[in-house]
Amino acid sequence: MSHNTFGHLFRFTTWGESHGPAIGCVVDGVPPRLALTEADIQPFLDRRRPGQSKFVTQRQEPDQVRILSGVFEGLTTGTPIALHIENTDQRSKDYSEIAERFRPGHADITYELKYGIRDYRGGGRSSARETAMRVAAGAVARKVLGPEVRIRGALVAMGGDWVDPAAWDWAAVEENAFFCPDRAAAVRWEERLLDLRKSGNSVGAVIEVVAEGVPPGLGAPIYGKLDADLAAALMSINAVKGVEIGDGFGAAALTGEENADEMRMNADGTVAYQANHAGGILGGISTGQPIVARFAVKPTSSILTPRASVDRQGQEVEVQTKGRHDPCVGIRAVPVGEAMLAIVLADHLLRHRAQNPDAPSVARLPRN
Amino acid sequence: MSHNTFGHLFRFTTWGESHGPAIGCVVDGVPPRLALTEADIQPFLDRRRPGQSKFVTQRQEPDQVRILSGVFEGLTTGTPIALHIENTDQRSKDYSEIAERFRPGHADITYELKYGIRDYRGGGRSSARETAMRVAAGAVARKVLGPEVRIRGALVAMGGDWVDPAAWDWAAVEENAFFCPDRAAAVRWEERLLDLRKSGNSVGAVIEVVAEGVPPGLGAPIYGKLDADLAAALMSINAVKGVEIGDGFGAAALTGEENADEMRMNADGTVAYQANHAGGILGGISTGQPIVARFAVKPTSSILTPRASVDRQGQEVEVQTKGRHDPCVGIRAVPVGEAMLAIVLADHLLRHRAQNPDAPSVARLPRN
Amino acid sequence: MSHNTFGHLFRFTTWGESHGPAIGCVVDGVPPRLALTEADIQPFLDRRRPGQSKFVTQRQEPDQVRILSGVFEGLTTGTPIALHIENTDQRSKDYSEIAERFRPGHADITYELKYGIRDYRGGGRSSARETAMRVAAGAVARKVLGPEVRIRGALVAMGGDWVDPAAWDWAAVEENAFFCPDRAAAVRWEERLLDLRKSGNSVGAVIEVVAEGVPPGLGAPIYGKLDADLAAALMSINAVKGVEIGDGFGAAALTGEENADEMRMNADGTVAYQANHAGGILGGISTGQPIVARFAVKPTSSILTPRASVDRQGQEVEVQTKGRHDPCVGIRAVPVGEAMLAIVLADHLLRHRAQNPDAPSVARLPRN
Amino acid sequence: MSHNTFGHLFRFTTWGESHGPAIGCVVDGVPPRLALTEADIQPFLDRRRPGQSKFVTQRQEPDQVRILSGVFEGLTTGTPIALHIENTDQRSKDYSEIAERFRPGHADITYELKYGIRDYRGGGRSSARETAMRVAAGAVARKVLGPEVRIRGALVAMGGDWVDPAAWDWAAVEENAFFCPDRAAAVRWEERLLDLRKSGNSVGAVIEVVAEGVPPGLGAPIYGKLDADLAAALMSINAVKGVEIGDGFGAAALTGEENADEMRMNADGTVAYQANHAGGILGGISTGQPIVARFAVKPTSSILTPRASVDRQGQEVEVQTKGRHDPCVGIRAVPVGEAMLAIVLADHLLRHRAQNPDAPSVARLPRN
Questions:
Q1: Are C252 and D160 inside 8 Å of each other by CB?
Q2: In 3D, which of A131, A2, C141, C26 has the Cα closest to residue B220?
Q3: D41 preceded by cis ω (within 30°)?
Q4: Rounded Cα–Cα distance for residues C239 and C258 (Å)
Q5: A29 and chain B: CB distance < 8 Å anywhere?
Q6: Whole-angstrom distance, CA of residue B362 vs CA of residue B359
Q7: Interface test mutation site (partner B, options D1, D2, D8, D13, max chain B beta carbons within 10 A)
Q8: Which residues form the signal peptide (chains A, B, C, D) (predicted)?
Q9: Lower CB count within 10 Å: N or C terminus of chain A?
Q10: Does A69 belong to an annotated binding site?
């Protein structure tokens, strides 16, 4: 992780601004001879795309991905895979005001203080548009992980209103506009978002991502821990302010007795974990249980209410966002979170294989 | 971040097991001609040291640090600084049972599944003892940051019992055995820990770390974000299950209006932020406000209550921790969290300086 | 250096195959507010371009570079700069035979053994075409270094025929088709290449690259040495088999007395080095003298003479290259070598500045 | 490669100065369950050690290595291996003069210009003493490579006097004080070194290192090439000024016909390469042939003849090295070169395995 590159062996580098000619990424370190076409990537992009419902920004972009390298006759070659999306909806005229004024809660002022220059159009590099390339890279990562590893995500809280775990249904996630696994909550959220939309206000959210079928052994002491890399991956998503694994902050309120994930044996020689408070990771290494992580997304900073701010010259001004408005950016973060989880796992799968080629793919005992 | 090395320019590598002859680290990338002696590091180690109160493990280690390289006549030379602590209290006899049995909540089973071998004595590499070297490296990082940057930490919740923000007094932190900033909470916690100690149970905790005087501009898009690196740094600490910046998970329950950190100007040309919901970081880059982060530590996994588990041969067994017992490992994590915050900031200070040598050290406008 | 990414702070990642739709690179870590347009890059690409003389491959590519990100209103923004060149001359029909047969001296067989698949058209990823992106990134690196640093290169030997150092004239380099600094040698070489062209044979070459105006202090012990990074950079160029700094292999034949670069003082307080056997680098760190490096390029492996080889099925075959033929690939390596030198220096300039912001930009004594 | 760390997956970090209390390294990324004790490392250190013949520095150091972590009951555990050597022969009094005066050809002046401070005693960090830790790490790398990979080195030229390839006998290497594979050359060299010793002068050398049994497929395009990493590894050794692979600079004088390594098939389905001009690497990837590299070491800079120089204050002075004198530092570089070759191969073996777990271990066709 540094600059605009993420990962150690499975590694991707993104580039592009919201209103430049295109955005793209280079995915490197992919094993050869994996079947890969644009059709493997496009569905994930479509799922993240703004404009698919009334609750996310009405930017109309087809987000059509092209593979420019690294794939030959439908198979990966082991060389870098360049992915490319043209920016077709660049309404630069909407953004003239924010050239000089810093929107509270946005990166405008920090880019100015750091670089002394910024591409202010649509947020430039700090736009959530960058996350499209994470989703594209995530689709490639899923290929590396193979079909045994299943990665899904859901919105589990919106503005403090949580889903009911007892009502969780993965099928529901694809039925509503919020990736909400609880049908009753989805109804409540819809109402709330319509209100927020009218008032020009916004609201935060919490997303949960889960990976099933992950082999034990991924991750490593001490600064290559799976959960540490996952925390960085999720925290790097725009507007994310918190990350937790398993019981997370809830674990801080438990006793050691309550928190212990006891173990028994299955008949097939695999470990039967009795609970998963740990979220599938112990000592930075996967246990073979589902990896469970949640992250908190702050409310959209672009709101219609005028806010006190300052401009580049140090004058006090008011800033009011006009044009497109997204009452809950957290919704779009669901596919992005899934992608980052896939990317971290793919990277660690390769790293693990390098050092431990004969490690078991399930939690079987005795190991040898 | 990978393997046992953390950081990009300011970088440290730790080594050593709980019951090996020594533990150590190599701190690399330190600017030259900084005054540094063991006396600059030892106080931070003493603060973390087990055995200083009745509420942390009774291991008696002087944890005397030695500088073996990189310092000449009391000044850093720009070459790697090797720090070394002998392990003097190695009661290997206590640990014979856990050679074969996996303690629930510990890394025993994941090390076994990954490596097929582990130094089981006292947790080996996964022991919290490794964090002593983080604290030592953190002391060097503070030197790099200079006296303008002030880094402090406190325990803000124990077992779900939170401190009262209104009662916060930094002076209190040094007065009790828990780094607790709320004197009334410290009294409650003492009682609770005595109970847990008797019952052999344990409890989780939340730590808050704060850095004041941090220049704006630290951190960078997109995978070199300050908060992403900080999330990885804190999540890499033993037993940590969650990390948040500023309002963190609380931000997910706010509206955009509530969450906006509005801005006015101070008379001296610096930005007067009206709030700090963002925890001092916007778009992955520091704003010049205090950096505020919290992290959740799960309850100590070593408890006296017997738990169901399995052994290396795949047999079902019971495991009960004997010997030293630490009812709340979160307490010791306070100095470790401070150290990791210092390390992340030192690394990003160098990275920022490399690319932006003329950036301002305070949030002044206009920038130029 | 790993995968398809080079550099630590100034860092670039290349992608693309010879006969894919495009090639490109992402240049990351560039300081903000440097003036940069395509016109700053294009001349360097034109200089490297095949087809400009009768002695290099007759591939007709305009190699028109586009900047797709990281530049706003003519200035760098500090975010990643994506550079893009369409592949317009893709005669895929020429390459059907080499799909199955391994050309001796080429990477055909090693890609097959490593990946089990390769884009064989025109060499795919292993084509010298990739070096166009190095040249493009090198143009950006020159911007980072600024006008004080002057980087030039020349062909100093072709097929064992060396230039006369006494006849060296930098102006001559731009006058002939070989980047030859010795006008008499250029005449000899022209004759020789015409012969080789007729016979379908090829010849190796040696290139010298020189950087003047480099500040002292670039590079660092022990595995961040300037000469080590430069060696990797030059050795990574296609067909390079040797790299040397200063007197290089010649130094191995000298005595210590002969090899010493003695020092006196200039009137202005700077060091007057009496010689530069060291090639401007001592202990891995620049002295402030010109950096001088040479690298050896093997003869073009694609020749018209049939050679014994094998195919993918393990059958013995004969291979004869048809179509475009380049009697001395070393010629085109001159601008590539310059680019890699610029890139290494730009990276180390940033790295040096991070750790030593107050180091002098010339070899002045006393230092402070 | 950066700072004091080398390698990507198999990675080591060295620390320590010539006259500090100790030197050491941390070897990280080692696969678990390899048998490893000090006895596996010590013989390589003994081979490099000064003081074993009259032709290398008479420093008397036992160079006794200790393993401080990462090995449990004689087996590696997958965690970092700390290696430690006490400095027992620290004659600090010999070095008082060079505190102020810069020795020509040494890193004294570049450390001063970069850092403004240096541990001048015995060269401090820039001392060849650091190479002991490379040799130690190299011994661990050999374990990772396994017994199939055989790595050897020899001195092939001293002061321009080359060995006769026809007289090469690996057995001779261990019989003389120069690692010389040509018994006649060894006799000539002995005479020459006695003369140089008397006159206080010194001489350069060329070392060849060879690895047999290396699987095909190690290395990767474009900036992870095996030869590029090897070039960096060898160039990072003290006093090295040139590196070449296979025919190296000689290849630049060949024609394409001469340089082609033609291929036939062996009866067992492996490729029968007819020559090895390429030194076992094509396109940055190993072919399965022996890896052959040579590097040039400049003459020892510390000579008894007075040389013109300057001091820290910018005064012109004369410098004459007193005390221990090593007429050919190249001799000791033989085991160091072997170690660096082993380290690069071990790193690339792990990297290759991560991406291509099912690649063949010999050059067999058809691959699948």
A1: yes
A2: A2
A3: no
A4: 33
A5: no
A6: 9
A7: D13
A8: none
A9: C
A10: no
B267 contact partners, CB below 8 Å, separation of at least 6: none
What's the token pair of residue D336? Answer: 């160091």
* Ordered DSSP codes for B271-322: EEES--TTTTEETTEE-SSPEEEEEEEPPPS--SS-EEEEBTTS-EEEE---
Looking at chain D, how many residues does it have? 368
Rounded Cα gap, residues C120 and B182, in angstroms:
70
Nearest chain D CA: its distance from A143 CA (Å): 13
Q: Per-residue pLDDT for chain A (368 aa), expressed as one digit of tens each? A: 789 999 999 999 999 999 999 999 999 999 999 999 999 999 999 998 765 666 666 556 678 999 999 999 999 999 999 999 999 866 556 677 789 999 999 999 999 999 999 999 988 999 999 999 999 999 999 999 999 999 999 999 999 999 999 999 999 999 999 999 999 999 999 999 999 989 999 999 999 999 999 999 999 999 999 999 999 999 999 999 999 999 999 999 999 999 989 999 999 999 999 999 999 999 999 999 999 999 999 998 888 889 999 999 999 999 987 766 789 999 999 999 999 999 999 999 999 999 999 999 999 999 97
| C:118-177 residues touching chain D, CB 8 A cutoff | 125-126, 130, 157, 159-160
How many residues are given for chain B?
368
Q: Which two tokens stand for residue A288?
A: 């073979």
Q: What is the ipTM of this complex?
A: 0.96
Residue with tokens 């036939």: D264
C298 assigned ligand-binding residue: yes
Residue B199, annotated ligand binder? no
Q: Looking at the partner chain, which of C31, C221, C356 has a beta carbon nearest the beta carbon of B355?
A: C31
In chain D, residues 197-256 whose CB comes closer than 8 Å to chain A: 220-221
Query: Is B19 in the D-facing interface, judged by CB distances under 8 Å?
Result: no
The answer to whether the beta carbons of residues D256 and D247 sit under 8 Å apart is no
Looking at the DSSP bridge assignments, the partners of residue A197 are: none
> What is the per-residue pLDDT across A121-141, written as a single tens digit (0 to 9) for each?
988 999 999 999 999 999 999
Name all chains with 3 or more CB-CB pairs below 8 Å to chain D: A, B, C
Neighbours of D297 (CB within 10 A): 30
- Pick A357's closest partner by Cβ from D79, D351, D353: D353
Q: What is the pLDDT of residues B217-252, one digit of tens each?
A: 999 999 999 999 999 999 999 999 999 999 999 999
Q: Are strands C65-67 and D205-212 parallel, antiparallel or unpaired?
A: unpaired
CA-nearest of D341, D86, D134, D78 to D234 is D341
A74 min Cα distance to partner chain B (Å)? 30
Q: Are the beta carbons of D20 and B124 separated by less than 8 Å?
A: no
CB contact under 8 A, C9 and B79: no
Query: Which chains, if any, share at least 3 CB pairs under 8 A with chain B?
Result: A, C, D
D39: helix, strand or coil: helix
Tell me if D287 and C113 make a contact (CB, 8 A cut-off): yes
- The answer to whether residue B196 neighbours chain A at the CB level (below 8 Å) is yes
Please name every residue paired with B220 in a beta bridge, in sequence order, or none if there are none.
B224
Would you call C236 and D228 a contact, using CB atoms and an 8 Å cutoff? yes
CB atoms within 10 A of CB C323: 14
Nearest-CB residue to D355 (from A31, A220, A221): A31
Using CA atoms, how far residue A288 sits from A192, A272, A345, B317, in Å, is 39, 10, 12, 20
